[in-house]
Design a protein that fits this description.
Blueprint lengths: L9 H11 L2 E6 L6 E7 L12 E4 L18 H7 L7 H33 L1
Antiparallel strand pairs: 1-2, 2-3
Length: 123
């Protein structure tokens, strides 16, 4: 993987990802007590969720003992040697990831519906 030279927080990633899926997040608490809670819903894909549901919680078990607070890759060498520059920005990449997940979930639902139909027709 080649770096873009940009830095983004996990919160920014979560806000963009859920926002693209039609879920507006609200953050409450600080540090390990911080939680991401649904502020509003604007998507039919979210029918099992409701305003006020907690979608993001911090689990200290996943903290690394020597956590680095700030990381940013440097793509200078790739640009100098290969002429490479990033073509996809962070927001676009996150949205592409969400679209791929939504597509996969829709396909799984179609498969489940088909299995249900086949099972019902056998009886």
């Amino acid at each position: 993987m080649i770096a873009t030279g940009e830095s983004h927080s996990v919160r920014e990633f979560v806000d963009i990802a859920f926002g693209h899926a039609g879920i507006e997040m609200e953050w409450r608490g600080t540090g390990p007590e911080e939680k991401g809670i649904i502020r509003s819903l604007a998507s039919p894909l979210t029918s099992t969720l409701k305003v006020g549901d907690v979608l993001v919680e911090i689990d200290p078990r996943y903290f690394r003992p020597t956590e680095v607070e700030y990381l940013r890759g440097d793509a200078k060498k790739a640009k100098e040697k290969l002429g490479w520059e990033p073509k996809v920005r962070f927001r676009e990449l996150v949205e592409m990831m969400v679209e791929a997940d939504i597509k996969e979930l829709e396909e799984m639902k179609r498969c489940q519906d088909l299995v249900r139909k086949l099972t019902t027709n056998k009886e």
